[in-house]
Design a protein that fits this description.
By secondary structure, the chain is of the alpha/beta class. It is built from five helices and seven strands, in the order H-E-E-E-H-E-H-E-H-E-E-H. It has one domain: Glutaredoxin, CATH 3.40.30. The termini are far apart.
């Protein structure tokens, strides 16, 4: 009887290890093409016409967040990204989301307030190696990519990464 219980728990441990390995493999596959090291160039005009350049944001950590208006997972992160943008340097990139007017209407309709570069043709996404959204990059004050994530990230998780990037 004791051996049967031990066997059942051992089988569950193996199943759990396989699930964890599968998830880690999936995460590595999703992130395989993402930019690493020095952050690629990112400059342009925000939806409100304000010029923005990642190079001018040196000195403090930065969150670069790729998202899309059609992405349901991105919608789950929107409020957290908006809140983070009030306290930290943030550039978001609306990937393949239509023209600037459509993206601005989406932001207004959803009560979102974060800086957005529109990327209707995928120019920025290609430069950063982004093929799926949401995708987040946390840069240190020197412009080096310290953390990347594809898929859902919690607000606290992004804030912790920004905090850690300030010490690296």
């Amino acid at each position: 009887m004791v051996g049967a219980k031990r066997g059942k728990w051992g089988r569950r441990a193996v199943e759990l290890a396989l699930i964890v390995a599968l998830l880690l493999g999936l995460r590595a596959w999703q992130q395989r093409d993402l930019a690493t090291g020095a952050a690629p160039e990112l400059e342009g005009y925000l939806l409100d016409g304000t010029p923005v350049s990642l190079a001018e944001m040196r000195g403090a950590p930065v969150l670069v967040h790729f998202w899309a208006v059609w992405c349901p997972v991105c919608a789950l992160e929107e409020d957290a990204v908006s809140a983070i943008a009030r306290d930290h340097q943030v550039i978001t990139v609306a990937m393949q989301s239509g023209d600037s007017g459509e993206v601005a209407a989406y932001l207004k309709e959803n009560g979102l307030d974060f800086p957005v570069l529109n990327d209707p043709d995928g120019l920025y996404a290609n430069r950063w190696g982004v093929s799926a959204v949401p995708a987040s990059f946390v840069l240190d004050g020197e412009g080096r990519i310290r953390f990347t994530e594809v898929g859902y990230s919690t607000g606290i998780g992004l804030r912790v990464r920004l905090w850690m990037a300030g010490f690296v």
